[in-house]
Structures are given as C-alpha cells and as structure tokens.
Amino acid sequence: MKVRAMSKEIVSFRENIKRTFIRFALLPVIFIAAVVFILFVFFWNMFMVAGNRKDNEQINEKLGAVMDNYYEMVDTAAELISENGPAITGNKIYPIVYDKTAEYGEMGNFIVLSSDGQVLFSSKDHAPSFLTGKEYLNWGVWRKLKDSEGITDAVLFENNLCIAKGVYKNGNLIRAIVYIVPGEVISSAIGDRNRYVLVTDKNGWVYASNTRGLRDDFGQIEDILYARVGYVRNANIVYYSYMTELEGRNLKIYTINDITGNLKMMLFLVAVIVLIFIAISLITVKSTEISSVRLTKDIKKMEDAFEDVQKGNLDVSLDINSSREFQTIGNDFNAMLGGLKRQIEQNKELAQNAAFFQVKQLESQFNPHFLFNTLDNIRFMAKIDEKAADKMIVSLSGLLRYSIREIREEVTVREDLDNLQFYLNLLQIRFNKRFAYSIDVSEDIMDCLIPKLLLQPLLENAVKYGFSGREKLTVSVKGYQITNQLIFICKDDGAGMDEELLNEIKENLHETKNKSSHYGLYNINRRINLMYGESAGLGIASTKGEGTLIRIVIPKHA
Amino acid sequence: MRNWGVFLLAAVLTVCILTGCGSMGEVKESSSIVVVSPHPNGFIRPLIQEFERASGIEVKVIECGTSDAVDMIKNDEDIDVMWGGSILTVGPFSDLFYSYKTPNEKYFKDEFKSVNGAYTFFTDVPSVLIINTDMVSSKNIQGYSDLLKDEFKGRIAFANPARSSSSFEQLVNMLYAMGSGDTDRGWDYVKELITSLDGKLLNSSSMVYEGVANGKYAVGLTFEEAAVTMLKSNKHVSIVYMEEGVVSTPDGIYINKNTKNIEECQKFVDFLTDKDTQTIIAKTLGRRSVRKDVEVSGLVLPKSEIKSIAVDKESVMENKEKWIEKFGKIYEGAGDE
Q: Do A229 and B45 touch (CB under 8 A)?
C-alpha cells in the first residue's frame, strides 16, 4: 500500500470503501478473465498450428513414399535400358511397373520414347502430344529431361505430374523415360482433411488440391500464400498456412486453415466479455456506492453529532443500530453527553448557589434587623457600660469585615470559629444572662477546610427559634473528626419544634428546590451537597419544648 | 499486485505470439518480375509456366487491356515488362521503354527487325472476323461490307479503339481496306459500321471474342489468335479473313525503362523469342511467329492465302490520337440520331 494519501488530502471513508471493493473484487476478476481468455487463445492457437503441421507432415510422408516409389521405378527401368541396350521390350518393363504400382491399384502411364519423340513403350498404349509432338522436343518435360542429363526429375506440365529421366550413352540421349503419375494416387495420399490442402510444384503451379480456391486465374497458388507462411491475410480472409517441400521431388505441400471465422468469434467473445465487464463495473460501482452510503450513514450520523456538540448544541442523541460496534459507540456517546450535561448543570447550579449564598451572606450580614438591633444595643450600652459597647463595636466590625473579605468558598475551621466568636460576643452582651454558650472543637481539625460561614447560620437558627417563649437558651457547638469526616453539632435547649414541622423540614432538605420558608437550614444542606456531594449532609433532631440538635457532616480535607 | 499482473500478461502474450508464428514471415525470395499483359489467359499460362520452369524466375502476371497497361507504366507502378499490345498502339510511347536487342533477332523476318530497339516484336497478329457458327453461316459473311447487313445490326462485338489495341488495329484495317488505301474515304464505312453497332461498344478485346463464343454476339472484330484460342476450346466459332484486305500488325514485348530487374527482363524477352517458344506458339497456340525458321499452325491460313494489306506504320502512329478522337465523336454523335 503506497503512502500516496499523505501528500494529498485524506480521502473520504466512502471513497475508500468504494475503491476497496473495486480493487479487491472487480479488478482481480477482470484480470483473471483476461488471463483465462489469453490462455484460451494461446492454447487454441497451439492446437490449431500443431494440427495443421501434423496434417502437413503426414501428407508429406505419404506423398514422399509414393514419389520415392515411382522414382525407384523409373530408375530401375533406366538401369535396365542402360545395361541391356536400347532395344527393350514390354516383357522386361511391365514387371517393373507392376511391381511398383500394384499397391495403388492404378498403373498410370509409363512411357519410353526415343530421343526424337517416338513412343517405344507405353503402358496405356498412347502418349500425350506434349511428349510426342516435334514442337515439344525442347519444351516442358523434354527440356527438363535434356537439362538434367540423366537425373530423375519431376515435372508438372499442364496438369500432368511427370517423372522423367533420360538414358544417356556416351553423353548422348538415347532414351527418354516418362511416367505420368495417376492423379487418384496423389489424391488418396492427401486424403480427407479438415483444412485446405494444395500440392504444387516448386513454382507454385497447383497440381492437386481439395479446393478450387486459393489460386489465381492461371492456376498458381495465390501470391500471398506463395510468399508467406504463418498468418496470412488475403482480402478479408485470414489464413494460417504451413508449407513443406518434398526434397528433390519438385513438390510443395500447403496445408491451410481458414481461421477468419475463429477470429471473428474470438473478437465477438472479447466484445461480449468487455460488454459484460463494463456492465459489471457499472453495477459494482453503483452498488458499492449504495452500500457504502448505507454503511457510512451511521458514521455520518456520528460525524454530524460531534459537529453539533462542537458548535455548542448539546441536545443531540445518537440512534444507531446498524451494527453492534456502532451501537456501542452511539450509546456511549449519549451517556457521555448526558454526563457532560449534568456536570454543566451542576456547575451552573453551584455557581448560582454560590452567588445566591453570597448574596444571602451579605444580606444576613447586612440584615437590617440585626444591624438595627445591634446598633441599638450599642447605643444603649454606650450609656451604661463603655467597655461592653466597645466590645460590641469591635465584634460587629469583625463580623462585617469577615463577610466582605475575599469571597472564597472555603475557610479553615479556626477562621470560621473566630468569626463565630464575634457573633457570640454580640449575642452574649445582648442577651446577657439569658444566653449561654459553649464551644468544643477539637484541636486537630482547626486547620481543616470548611465552607465559609458554615457555623454562624446554625446559631442564627438556634437563636431565632430557640428563644420563642423561653427565658433562657444554652447553645453548645461541638466539632470533631471521625474517619475522614468532620462532624459539627449545634445543640440548643430551646423551644424545639413539633413533629409535623420537623418532618416537613427534613423532607424539604431532600428537595431540589426549597419549598418552605426555612431557607437557612436548606441552604446549608444544599450548599454542602453541591460542594461535597451526597456524602455531606445536614441532620436535624428536635423535641418540642426540649431543644433542637443540628448535625453537619462534611468530608475532611485540609 | 498490479505490476505482477501486467508482467504475466505480457509474458503470456509473447509466448503466444512466438509459438503461434514459429516460421511466420517471408519465404525465401527468388528473383521475380511483374508482367502486365493483354494476352488471353489460355495463351499466357503455358508460356509463363515454362519460363518459370526453365529460368527459375518467378513471374507475376497482371491481366489488363492495352491502354490500361500503358497507363500503369506511365503512373510508375511497379511493372517490369509489358507483354503484348500492338506496335501501332504502344509504339507512340516508346520513350517509356528500355532499348534492348535480343540475340534472337537475327532469326526474325526482315519486317520484324526492330528499328530503334525500344521494343521487340513478339508475334504477327492479323485482324480477323470471328463468327458464332451456331448463329451465322460463313457464307453470309466474307468481309467488312457484310457487317452492314441488317441481320447483324446490334449483334456486332466491337471494342472501343481507345481502350483496346486490337480494336484500333481493326479501325486501321477498315480505313485502309474500305478506303482502298485512302484512309479519308475509309471513314464513310466507319460511320456506317458505327450505326450498325446500335450503341453497343465494348471495353476490352476479351469481351469481343468471349462475347461471340458465348453467343451474346453473332460476329466480332478481333485478332487471329483470340479466335484460334476459342477454336481450340471447342467453341462454336470460325474465322473469316476479310476479303477487302487483312492488316497484320505485330505485337511486342516492352521493357519498362524504370525496371529494377533488367537482367530478368532480358531473359524473358530472349525466352519468348527463341525457336522453341516461337514454335510452340505457332504450332499449339495459334499465333504467327516473327521468326523465319518457324512455320504456321494448321489452324490458320498461310499468309499466301490471305489478301494482306500493308500500312504505313509512321503515318498510323502519327494519326492515332486523331483517329481515335474522330471515332469517339462519331460514336457519340450517332447516339443523337
């Protein structure tokens, strides 16, 4: 796999699927089909050529045997004449002729002539004019005879295949032996063949053939076939042609297949295959497109969903059920998004709450009633007890300072206790003997972090409700740690609350929105829930007429 | 993977081609010449066969009419020799040909010894009438004037003298024979003959003698050897030597001056004019030899029994264009009448 993609832009997933289908399904098939077709052509060609050549060689062998036989016959006769002198009778010649021609059934015309064309012997009792005519004495067969000086030669004259030999004595021609080969013998040597066969002489004059075609108007084999072997095209016909020669016999054997039909069929096959492949290609491309669209629809869904989230729209959900893997992704995505949304909501609420509480803090600190009362007290005290008034002013300013100081969520226990002390001071001076308090916070948690103004509202609550109809109120504040938790208890012996109200408040604590007018306890609880989760909480116990106990649990951290 | 596929493909193809071809390609070439000839097929065949056998030179023969043959040489097509075509027709183009004097010429009759060597005389060809004996009796026709008889109107086979040299010979023959030597007077006869043609004018000499032999026409104006060939093929024809006079014009062998095979061409000319060949031509193919030492065949009348007319070769060659044009005009004019 090449690294091409790196240099260009990343190809789309759909494109990849399409290409994969094409490359691994379509192309291999095309390739295989092409190879098969080529192998088919190759083997067809091989068998056709082999068959053709085999035929040719068979004919060559047969014809060769026939010609050898006749040549021997002529040679034997020539020897006989040579040895026994020119006067020769049929008795001596016939046996030779019978001997060599009996197997073919047809005797042919065996002729012996004098050097001036007189017929001395003929097995058919006549000789053709081209052997006897005076005008032919240097022409055709005679020419060859006289040129060859005693060598046996095959001459195709007109349509006669003649084997001729001159008998010489002292350099003079005394006798001419000419054997005219019977056409039937040659035809049967050719036999029945499934291809065109032509037997010609050296110059291409056709002697025997199983077809009327393939020759020109004069009777010679077509020029193109004479000049070339192998694949030959003549007009619009394609042939495969093979030729062998009969050495020394002046004969050529052509075996020729007309393969035009085969070629046309192969071309047709190619065309059909190409058409089929074009169709397959189109179908494949189309169907891979369709199926890749279907498959990637879910991916597209995911793609779109992610894009939406990126743009800030968190209200998307994925509904994928095409395949298990994708379904898992879809569900996980939804869960993740859900969690994210919840987290955001909680943060928002926390922020809102913090803001609210800060407002509330400020409100409570700048609660006009509290301020009025306290200032009134100070004014009153100023006239009676200067020191007490001074202490009150210091405490009040301490409270105010604490509340407007940096608005951070968490402070150390020590810091909050210090603040609480200011508040208690004011209460003590104001209520004098009517109020008593105790603080019991273990030393080892002094540096732990707790929400700012965690404790003060507890006391506010105790004072607000505890005093109703009672003379005296005692409040005790305890704080300690147990196994990584900080426990703060604020207990009073005030008026307490009846069961109905207690239950109401308890239930309200668990609501997400405050439904009662007792916002103090609710806010503390909500606040510590938000900050520390469900492990933190506020608990109440109260008995009417005996007092109330409030317990806060928060995780310890430094 | 792709590269392997392509490689495999190429390999298979190569093997296929190699084995399929094997000995594909040209067969060993021997020397060869291209000959263009208006001679009849049956005349060409035995002579070419023997020449190939005797010399080993391959001959490719293109059959076509005389004027087409001359055009082919003019157009520089690959022709080595033009074999045939009367001297009168081809003579004017002697600048196309190569000058060669065959050693056989010393045996030629005097009138056939070449003047400027641009061509070699081949055979002596008299103009004759050929009649279809199934349709006409030789008693009815003895010469040119008989052609004008009503019974022959529209049944005369005559080729356009512009296209066929034997027809041009016939035109010359008519002009001399019917004008008693004065060719201007001969035109009167020609006009009447054209009328008797009744619009039928053939395009080649072969269409004339074959047309008569096949019964399409009753009588044809042709050359002797064509008629003899038809006779030897046992067609129902017979030869009439015009009683008004017979003109014999030799035909020739013309070597293309641009031939690349001059030696082979010379051998061809030598072969066609040697004693054996001329004897075969005279005895078996029905033509008259140009040699003194060869006698005529039995199928034709000896010259002594024919009324021969001589023509002025120079004058004929000079007037050839004019006469052909004049013939053409008269022929077209006859259509309007």
A: no
**Does B28 contact chain A (CB < 8 Å)?**
no
Q: What is the mean pLDDT of chain A?
A: 85
Compute the distance between CA of residue B244 and CA of residue B143 in angstroms, rounded to an integer. Answer: 6
Reference A489, options A459, A445, A523; nearest CA is A459
- Residue-range domain boundaries for chain B: 3-124+249-289, 125-247+303-331
Which candidate in A27, A132, A139 is best for mutational testing of the B interface (most B CBs within 10 A)? A139
* DSSP structure class, residue B202: B
For residue range A190-219, list pLDDT tens digits in order.
888 889 999 998 889 999 998 888 888 888
Which residue, among A191, A160, A180, has the nearest Cα to A97 in the 3D structure? A180
CATH number of B125-247+303-331: 3.40.190.10
Whether chain B has a CB inside 8 Å of the CB on A34: the answer is yes
Does residue A271 come out as left (phi exceeding 0), alpha (psi in the -120 to 50 range) or beta? Answer: alpha
Q: Is the CB of A135 less than 8 angstroms away from the CB of B29? A: no
Whole-angstrom distance, CA of residue B44 vs CA of residue B179 = 36
A388 in Cβ contact with A381 (< 8 Å) = yes
- pLDDT tens across the length of chain B (337 residues): 455 555 555 555 555 555 444 444 555 556 889 999 988 888 899 999 999 999 989 999 999 888 888 999 988 888 999 999 888 888 888 888 988 888 998 898 887 887 667 789 999 889 999 999 999 887 889 999 999 998 999 999 999 998 888 898 899 999 999 988 777 788 989 999 999 998 899 988 889 999 999 999 999 999 888 888 888 888 999 999 999 999 988 889 999 988 888 999 999 999 999 999 999 998 888 888 999 888 887 778 888 888 888 888 778 888 888 999 999 999 888 766 5
Tell me if A35 and B9 make a contact (CB, 8 A cut-off): yes
The rounded distance, in Å, linking the Cα atoms of A214 and A240 is: 13
At B16, the amino acid letter reads: C
Nearest to A476 by CA among A538, A550, A365, A391: A550
DSSP B255-287: EBTT-S-HHHHHHHHHHHHSHHHHHHHHHHS--
Q: Is the pTM of this model over 0.95?
A: no
Cβ-defined contact of A144 to B22 (cutoff 8 Å) = no
Domain B3-124+249-289 has what CATH class? alpha beta
Let me know if A187 is exposed, middle or buried by CB neighbors in 10 A (0-12, 13-18, 19+). Answer: middle
